[in-house]
UniProtKB/TrEMBL annotation, chains A, B:
SUPFAM superfamilies in the record: GroES-like (SSF50129), NAD(P)-binding Rossmann-fold domains (SSF51735)
Residues in Alcohol dehydrogenase-like C-terminal domain copies: 180-292
Chain ranges of the Alcohol dehydrogenase-like N-terminal domain: 25-137
PROSITE patterns xref list: ADH_ZINC (PS00059)
Protein name, entry field: Alcohol dehydrogenase catalytic domain-containing protein
Organism: Streptomyces litchfieldiae
């Protein structure tokens, strides 16, 4: 079968690999019908050392179950399923808390780590199939497929950002970042009733999407100028919730600048830094809180899917192009060049 | 009148200063009947550069109103009052949110900043008296006075630590630090119903106090050994809430080691660092949250005072000695040497 491998920064290839097969009685084999490239795939695409290569890529996919191990009970051959970006048993103490990304099962993992399969491929061996996979009540050629695919990561991540930021109908929120996660954080904040949503982003095509998803204000300026503009919009105070959907230290510093005293910075962009200011002069003085992390999207699928099925939300609009597997390397480059927002892959 | 001044590290003096007087119509003049030395006073006592000297000291006091400005309406001559460590108007948007330490009034401040008065003195000019002062329904010689004095800072700070840590009757909590704030964080967690309270501290006299206040377990070891011990006590997982009541980076790192995945680190020890690990490998990977800051003790007085008046809690037990103003310099040294837990001053 064919799969996507990353050999180093800027070097993505689609190659023949051994067919994925069931290895454990809790596995399922899924034939991928739709997957995509994630903003977080661009971090290694920008900096991966060749020593770590090759890595199997892709952690967001929908597909049809082709085979199941003897112990799998919740999905069966022929089911259309979505796979969250974290493998989990949906049963341990952390999963029961809704924190599937911290599942304690020995096989719990993120896709693409080590020798595991990745979703940017023809097929995937899915460990802990009962815990990981969720059935989709539509046909593989449903027009809803792009939106349902976002349940695997990007919608759930936007939703998590809003939940971790405490967003509700009394909240003003600033979203930093106009990538797919930032835009779906806007959609999620709107869905949770936020009264005001300020989107900070520089790419007008994307921020226009953001307005469509619910942004009430757009601030194109960054740094001190952007901070001043958000403060101007909010009576000088900033917003109670700030969603940081980028991952760079400059975005965190921007968040510190626009968060209201006593407010919360909710991070879902994977931090590209380890140390950051958190002392008296940054977080402590005004009781600012820091929240967020990898989204336990599995915990959110039951809540979010009905809104997709009935057309209340259309998160699939973040896909602005579709390619086959051959087009994946070009898709990485197009996203890195910001020519495409998010690439859908139909293998 | 006499007041406490700090001239530099290790150099505290009690000197004659000009009498405090009413300056603004919103001021009150308070004759101090009880004040104390705070753990946070020990930070400048350890490191204050002489260039910043002299600084008026003390931010926790109880006293009798001696005079009031023309616009003061809530307190009057002869009232016994307690002053929170932050001056606030109790009226702005932040005070209405219960965040009095971030009061937006131009006169809002912490005691002892700049040329302001301090509580370790015979008298204090209290700005924004209506917002800042709270009447105490007892006589100045009440046996409850040590406990009521803790409403000015240390009890409210322990309570804030527990509240910011989300402590309730389903919470296990680790408290790092056996100083007065740590011990009253134990008392506060117990008061809020925490099912398990692990106190990390090395001074047995203090941790014995902690047990009296509600600690179910004491861990004397620090660093990796202490972390391992807490994990052993909690099935390997750590606790959902961790209260960091020290302020050193090593205490923050210890908090990272004992917090459960998805849990919260609540800081009330003033951070003696600005940068700290908050990236993927520390906070982000497991959705750990960071909370806390200067406690808005004014917001908590109405809730906490009845429990002192009816004897439900006795936070005044943290005072293990009493001195007059002449004894203040020795009191600083005794606390720095950890010979005394907390020094009460009867001017």
């Amino acid at each position: 079968m064919r799969a996507t491998l990353m050999y180093g920064a800027g070097d993505v290839r689609v190659e023949d690999v051994p067919d994925s097969v069931i290895k454990l009685p809790t596995d399922a084999l899924v034939r991928v019908t739709a997957s995509c490239i994630c903003g977080s795939d661009l971090w290694p695409y920008g900096s991966m050392p060749p020593a770590d290569a090759p890595a199997r890529m892709g952690h967001e996919f929908v597909g049809v179950v082709e085979d199941t191990g003897a112990e799998v009970t919740t999905v069966t051959r022929g089911d259309l399923v979505v796979a969250p970006f974290a493998i989990s048993d949906n049963a341990c103490a952390f999963c029961r808390d809704g924190l599937h990304t911290s599942c304690a099962h020995p096989q719990a993992n993120f896709w693409g780590s080590g020798s595991e399969d990745g979703g940017q491929a023809e097929a995937v061996r899915v460990p802990l199939a009962d815990g990981t996979l969720v059935k989709l009540p539509v046909a593989p050629d449903s027009a809803l497929m792009p939106s349902l695919l976002t349940l695997s990561d990007v919608l759930g991540t936007g939703h998590h950002a809003a939940v971790a930021g405490g967003v509700n109908e009394r909240t003003s929120v600033t979203v930093i970042g106009d990538g797919a996660v930032g835009l779906l954080a806007v959609l999620s904040a709107k869905r949770l009733g936020a009264e005001r949503i300020i989107l900070m982003g520089r790419h007008q095509a994307r921020t226009d999407f953001g307005r469509e998803f619910g942004a009430t204000d757009v601030v194109a300026a960054r740094g001190e100028e952007g901070i001043a503009r958000v403060r101007e919009l909010t009576g000088g105070h900033g917003t109670r919730a700030v969603i940081e959907a980028v991952g760079h230290l400059t975005a965190y510093e921007q968040a510190l600048g626009v968060v209201r005293r006593g407010g919360v910075i909710s991070r879902v962009g994977v931090p590209q830094y380890e140390e950051a200011p958190v002392g008296f002069g940054s977080l402590f003085r005004h009781n600012l809180r820091l929240a967020g992390g990898p989204a336990p999207v599995r915990a959110y699928i039951e809540e979010l899917m009905p809104d997709i099925l009935d057309g209340t939300i259309e998160p699939g609009k973040v896909f602005d192009t579709t390619t086959d597997l051959d087009g994946v390397p070009a898709g990485y480059q197009a996203m890195a060049d910001r020519k495409n927002l998010k690439v859908l892959i139909a293998p």
